[in-house]
């Protein structure tokens, strides 16, 4: 895309055109901050944290923000789901950068900042809320991505409550021998799916899982390509949230 | 160090606002028709090469998947790999790659995986992260333009960057670029594409 745009600009007669091929990933990897647009801060499915240390939040804060000082953030870091996009703001850029680095170091991949911090938000005429904060509970819920099945629906299938659904376990034979398999499930390891397609019924809906979701995602694409109605489970199945019945080895 | 992001945010923001009002950031259509065409061609010319974007890799199943083509015509192919496969370290999700493969029995086997390096059009010079950082740090007058779709830009973009997805620039041309054609323009996107 960089090349396409740079080429267009060149054709339009711009004389000083450069391309940053490393792009946003290289920028972030080098430890530099990235910014969320105001619209996304207002409406995105994010965890928004107000890092200002005093009682300023009562006088005004960005809607949906959770006030957490740096210390509180470090103490409560496990309350923030690792896959949640986190947006930070404060009144001191050093504090904000400290928290930004800390979160990135802790494995949060989507962390961004509010341009100009709280001051910039207010100056841009964006809405604020005032008054006491009654709860600092973090209630972020991930939205299901394309092709994903919810844990609840997947569980129903393993409980045998969805007779029109065929559940595939894409893990290896060794993993199943060691850990067991969910009920009402058929094991076809990911790499065998292309040649064992005839074992997968065309007239049923397919759910597919593995250990974390990575292989299930690949298998999902393979089955979609072959005309199946398929969904995959994106979840570490050792997560207590799964709570599906297992046939132990 | 303190507050310099804040400082540089202001002039760039003004520039960004001027540009945005010219009609940016509305078009979120998917991109790169040319790429699609060229990938499809590669497919036809040499069936034993897949050029595209790595979808995922499973070390447990020794399988790698690659998406060839873009949008509705995109096809995902699954290939096996083994200890003899060279360049497996280039099979990172989201990276552009070229996979040379061969048919072994019922399986497609990746023989060699190379990163697909993006090239810039003639007359366009590359800039690295350190130089770009310095330019931003020094408040260098320029337009920094993010070519990714609006949703990605909204989540996280470089300080002072404006959003110029390829379809938008294709449609609006000069209207979304500065009047002075000698202005420094720097384009970036989500990596080597």
TrEMBL record, chain A:
Q: Name one GO molecular function term.
A: transferase activity
Instruction: Note the superkingdom of the native organism.
Output: Bacteria
Q: Which Pfam families match?
A: Rhodanese
All copies of the Rhodanese domain together span: 6-36, 42-130, 161-243
Q: Which UniProt keywords apply?
A: Transferase
Gene3D superfamilies of this UniProt entry?
Rhodanese-like domain
Which PANTHER family did the record assign? FAD-DEPENDENT OXIDOREDUCTASE (PTHR43031), OXIDOREDUCTASE (PTHR43031:SF16)
Question: What name goes with this protein?
Answer: Rhodanese-related sulfurtransferase
Q: Which organism is it from?
A: Desulfofustis glycolicus DSM 9705
Automatic annotation (TrEMBL), chain B:
Q: Which GO terms describe its molecular function?
A: thiosulfate-cyanide sulfurtransferase activity
- InterPro entries from the UniProt entry: Rhodanese-like_dom, Rhodanese-like_dom_sf, Thiosulphate_STrfase_CS
UniProt keyword annotations, A-Z: Signal
Which residues constitute the signal peptide according to the record?
1-22
Q: Where is the Rhodanese domain?
A: 143-191
Keyword presence, Calcium: no
- The protein depicted here goes by the name Rhodanese-like domain-containing protein
Organism, scientific name: Desulfofustis glycolicus DSM 9705
